[in-house]
Design brief:
With 390 residues, this protein is an alpha+beta fold. The protein is built from 13 helices and 16 strands.
Amino acid sequence: MDSVSIMRKKNQKKLISYSAFALLLGASHSFADERIETIVKAAIEPVMQQQKIPGLAVAITVHGQPHYFNYGVASKENGKAVTENTLFEIGSVSKTYTATLAAYAQATGKLSLSDNASQVLPALRGSAFDNISVLQLGTYTAGGLPLQFPSEADHQDKMLGYFKQWKPTYAAGTHRQYSNPSLGLFGYLAAHSMEAPFDELMEKTLLPKLGLKHSYLKVPQNQMGLYAQGYTKDDKPVRVEPGALDSEAYGVKTSASDLLRYVEANMNPASLEKPLQQAIAITHTGYYTVGGMTQGLGWELYNYPVTLDTLLAGNSSQMAFEAHEVQWLTPPQPQRDAVLINKTGSTGGFGAYVAFIPAKDIGIVILANKNYPNPERIKIAHKILSALTE
C-alpha cells in the first residue's frame, strides 16, 4: 500500500473517532437536557396550575452550559408562547443592577460608599441625610425609609422634597427596613456622582459592559412584540407604571437568556474589565447579618449548603415589611467560597427569582408574567438546585 493510501486510511480513522466522540458528546448533552427538563417540569407544572400562571421561563446554567425551559404564554390575549427571549419585568432583581452600577462608580473612583448622602448630593444638605451614608442607603439601613414612596411623593419631581423632610425612626445603621426609596436614592446618587442620567448610564454603559443586549429600562418600540403581558392576582392585565426612582428600584425588563448571562457574569467575571470585576466583588461582599441572611449590595447571601427554611425566612414577607436589627460585619466580608446568592423581584403583574452557587458553577432564573408568592419561587428553585447538585 502506498504512503498516500496509508495516510488516507489514518485520516478516515481519525474522522470516524472524532465523529464518534461528537456523537457521544451530543448524546451526553441530550441526556443532561432530558434529565434537567424532567426535574424542572416536575417542579414547575404543579405551581403554574395552582397559581394560574399564564407563562413562565426557566433558565439554568451548569458549568457554563445554558439550558432553557419555557411554559405557557407571554400573553393570554394573543396566545404567543413564552421563549427564552420573551421580555419580563423583574422588579427588585433590578436592585442588583443598580448596586453593580454604584459599585462600578466606586471602583472607578467616582463615588465613595462611606460618604454621607448629602456630600454626594448637596440638595440634601440640612436633612437627615447629613448623617446617612451611601452604603446605608444601599443596604436599607438609613433609619426606616418605607417600602414604597407615599402616593403624594411618588413622582420624580417630588421625591427630593420627600427626602428633605423625612425623619428617621431608627439611628442610621441599626435596623434593616427593605425599601424602594432607599435603594432608589442609592442609585440616584451613583448616577449623580458619574455626572449622567441613571437610565443612560445603565443602558449605554453598564448593560453593554456586562454583554447584555436584550435588557432595558424602557423597552424599545421594535422590541415591544417580545414584552410579555403581566397579570394581577385577579388575572387582570397590567404592566409597571412610572414612579419616583422606578428605574433604580424596579425598572429592568429582560429575558431569561439575558438574565442568565448576567448570572454567569456574576459567577465568572474574569472576562470583564477590571473595574467591573471589582464592582461585582463589592456587590457580593457581606455587610451585615439578619438571621440566616447576609446582606450584600442588591444581592442577599446565605451560607451553602442552605436549608429551604432558611431561604424562606430570608425571603419572607416579614423580612420585607418589618424592621430588623442588624449585626454589622467588621470588616465587611468578601464573598465566601460556600455561598448561595439570591434575589426576588415583583411588579404588579410579574414575579422573578434568581439564585446561584458560584462554587458549584450553577445558577437558575425563574421569570413569570404573574406576581405569585415568593415562597413558591423559592421552593421551585431549591428543589431544582438540590436535584442538580446531589
